[in-house]
Amino acid sequence: MAHYAFINDNNIVTQVIVGREEDDLVDGITDWETYYGEKMGERCLRTSYNTVAGVHTGGGEAYRGNYAGIGYTYDEALDAFIAPQPYPSWSLNETTYSWEAPVAYPEDGGVYVWNENKKEWEAVVVDETD
After folding, report:
1. Which stretches does DSSP call E strand in 1-41?
2. Which of 61, 84, 107 marks a domain boundary?
3. Global confidence as pTM
4. Are β-strands 43-47 and 2-7 bridged in parallel, bridged antiparallel, or unpaired?
5. Same domain, 101 and 75
6. Are 6 and 42 in contact, with CB atoms under 8 Å apart?
7. Which end of the chain has the smaller Cβ count within 10 Å, N or C?
């Protein structure tokens, strides 16, 4: 099963579908990206459900950085799908195709949320009486 992302003129993913495998030959069609793109009137690119942060979760070859999602941007220079930037202070890691906070997430086992105003991680206080 293959997945395909449709991309508008601004390189934003508008839809992701399940489609034919690239090597499926049906009615003489050999290029499914072109076929689906012509049908939908948008550029179409294959995306891999098993690719996350530049790594194939099944141990195979990573494909286009991340599995595409609606609202993601396709970066032609990186040949990768990039999630929307979560905060203005975060920067794109061009190796993992993921956004990173300017301060590393604490590794003490706690739960934290990002505070963009302070540019820091804040501990989440859990009320154990609930």
Report:
1. 2-7, 13-19
2. 84
3. 0.86
4. antiparallel
5. no
6. yes
7. C
- Does the pLDDT of residue 130 top 70, yes or no? no
**Domain count across the chain:** 2
> Do 40 and 80 reside in the same domain of the chain?
yes
Instruction: State the CB neighbour count (10 A cutoff) for residue 97.
Output: 23
Which pLDDT tens digit goes with each residue over 64-111? 999 999 999 999 999 999 999 999 999 999 999 999 999 999 999 999
Residue 94 sits at φ, ψ, to 5 deg, of -80, 0
* 65 shares its domain with 116: no
**43 and 32 inside one domain:** yes
The pairing of beta strand 98-100 with beta strand 91-93: antiparallel
* Structural domain containing residue 128: 86-130
